[in-house]
Structure formats: C-alpha cells, structure tokens
Specification:
three-stranded antiparallel sheet, single chain
C-alpha cells in the first residue's frame, strides 16, 4: 500500500502486513478475521430479521442528496444522466421513507439496510484506527419510536453479537494472539475472552460524559500529551457545546469495561434530522453507543424530526439547499410521523470482537484515508 504522505498514516506496527496484499489476505489470522466478519453479519441479521421483526431492504448507492452529517468528511459526486448525484454517506433519509410506508401498507414499520457508505475522511483520521473511507453501516429505522426505543434495540443487537461471538472464542484466539503486541501502543485493553455484559448498558447524558472526561483530565493532565504522542495529533480543548472529538471518545471508552450510551447531545453537534426536545430546547433526542476498552463509538442514532416546518429552519441553519431536498420535504409534509433509528458500523464491530489494532484489518481491501491500495 502506498501512503499519500508520512503524516497521513501511523501503521508502523502493521508494516509487515502491508507490503503485499496477497500475503495479507492469505495470512491464516486474517482469514479468521474474515470468518468473524461473516459471523458478526449473520448475528446481526438473525437478531433483526428473526427476533425483532425487521425487514431488510437494499439501500441506495447514489441519490440526489445524502446525509450531510458526516462530521468533517466530504461527500463524493457522480454524473447521473446529466445530473449530479452523490454517493451515499448514509441512507438515513431513505430509511425513514421506507419504514413509514411499510407501516402504511399494513406491516410493522421496522426496516434495515446493510448499507455501503463512502466518506472522504480527512487524512488525519488514518491515525484514529477506526475510520474508513468505504464501509458498511447496518442502518435501521422504527416507526412510532423515540431514541430510548432505538437504544433498547441497539443494546439487544449488541448483546446478541456478544452472545454469538462468545461461542466462537476458538476462532478469535489466534487473531488476538497475532495482534496482542499492538494493543498497548494503540491504547487497547488486552483481550482474553468474550464476556457477555451482565447488566443493562450504562447511559450518560452528554453533559455528564463531558464532566467525567474533564474531571479525569484535571486529575491526570498528562493524559493529553499521551494521546497526542500515541495518535500523532494535536488535541483540542474539550467543549460542552460541541460533538465529542474521537480522541475523547477513545479516552472515555478506555475507562469502561462494558458498552455504554451517551445521549442528549447539544443541538449544534448533529444534523437537521435529529429531533429536538420540546421541553429541553438546545438538546437533541439522540445517542451514541461506545464499545469499551478503547475501541470508541460503534453506533449513532436518534429520534427523527418529522415536521417539515421544523426541518426547514434546521436545514437553513446548516446551509443546506432546500431545492435538493424537495422530495424529502414533500414526503415529510404528506406522510411524516415519529420514527427513530441508528446505524452501527459493521467493520467497527468486527474490529472490537477481533481486538484488531486498526479497523483496516477488518477488510481484505480497506479504503483508509490517504492510503492507496487495490
């Protein structure tokens, strides 16, 4: 793999695996990773289709608009019969439409995608160990639900994967052995078993999570320089009115032994489609789920804003072109109703259960920001 520039990546510890793509794919440990990928996928489908009554749809690959809430990543475009279309960075707008109309047709309003997403992430995200430019997000939507309903499904889904993967420790152990020397340098806790969480996942309001982080930093100021050295970045100051940067998610994740939620982010942190509380202005009915042991965010979700009269000013605030979203606004005006949903990164989930030092190892042909490969 050729790297755009030395600052774009930090894979010294993987150098022996990045010199020959054939050698990488043929490595017995990597073949086990690909098997684990298949088992995680099967576990998710089994839970959603079999236990929870969701119907899988094929997601769109391109469209006139896509999710603008890509947190610093750029969208990519393609000419489609004389019109500019975008590659999907998330199918969030389409899954609302499908779930609502499935319910209108007399079926449960519960749908999901295994969606291919393309996001041109900044070069520096190659150092995070958890960003890909091309990835699969398991995206679902539920009609007549709020964010707490979606969190319940999210916890059930993740817990089901824990249960299923705990039956395959013999598959995972050679993978863990292969990469155990890289865990410490990448800020990951050693792995010896898959332990199914014993209790309900902890829930933190956003402000509570920020306070926990700030207290930890105040008591251990050296942690900032340690983060900068480990990930070769400049850490920005923690702000209570903005999205949590990934390095703070890593820090909070490393302080936990089981998955946990953060919910009620400030309004400026997320997109126009996340519903604002009626009785708590400035805060959104949304959430993230973070894996423990330093692996960071796995899931992002929310209750959706479904009243087009509220969506329009939110779009204007973020500088969106209303004309490009005409079909979506028309749909909300005629058919909008409460929904909630989330997306879980498939490769991030595989990385967690395989204890991979970098998400790039979850795929045989990873598209890492700044790294050219087949």
């Amino acid at each position: 793999m050729a790297v755009v520039n030395e600052k774009s990546s930090n894979f010294d510890f993987l150098s022996s695996l990045t010199s020959d793509i054939g050698q990488i794919i043929a490595d017995p440990a990597m073949q086990r990773v690909y098997e684990a990928y298949d088992k995680v996928s099967q576990s998710m489908r089994s839970y959603l289709s079999g236990q929870e009554g969701f119907l899988e749809f094929k997601p769109p690959l391109i469209g006139p608009v896509t999710d603008p809430g890509t947190r610093g990543a750029k969208q990519t475009e393609i000419e489609f019969y004389g019109k500019n279309y975008k590659f999907m960075s998330s199918g969030i707008l389409y899954k609302q439409l499908l779930a609502i109309n499935r319910q209108k047709a007399g079926y449960p309003g519960r749908i999901y995608f295994f969606a291919d997403n393309l996001r041109m992430e900044p070069l520096e995200t190659a150092n995070t160990d958890r960003h890909l430019a091309e990835f699969i997000q398991v995206d679902l939507e539920i009609v007549d639900a709020d964010h707490f309903d979606a969190m319940e499904v999210a916890e059930g889904l993740v817990r089901n994967v824990y249960k299923d993967m705990s039956k395959h420790e013999e598959l995972l152990k050679p993978i863990w052995s292969k990469f155990e020397d890289a865990w410490g340098p990448r800020g990951l806790t050693p792995r010896t078993e898959i332990k199914v969480p014993s209790k309900q996942f902890k829930k933190y309001e956003f402000e509570e999570a920020v306070a926990i982080l700030q207290s930890h930093i105040d008591e251990n100021p050296i942690v900032i320089s340690e983060i900068e050295e480990r990930f070769k970045i400049k850490v920005n100051k923690l702000r209570p009115d903005m999205e949590l940067p990934w390095e703070y998610e890593w820090l909070l994740s490393s302080m936990h032994e089981e998955p946990f939620f953060i919910h009620d982010y400030p309004r400026g942190a997320r997109g126009f489609y996340d519903r604002e509380y009626e009785d708590k202005k400035g805060y959104l009915m949304d959430f993230d789920l973070l894996f423990p042991h330093g692996y960071g965010e796995a899931i992002s979700g929310a209750a959706r804003e479904y009243d087009h009269r509220k969506v329009i000013p939110r779009m204007k605030e973020s500088g969106e072109s209303l004309g490009k979203y005409k079909w979506y606004l028309d749909f909300l005006h005629k058919h909008g109703k409460p929904t909630a949903g989330f997306g879980i990164g498939l490769e991030r989930t595989v990385r967690y259960f395989c204890a991979l030092p970098s998400i790039m190892m979850a795929l045989p042909y990873p598209k890492v920001p700044g790294v050219f490969n087949p």
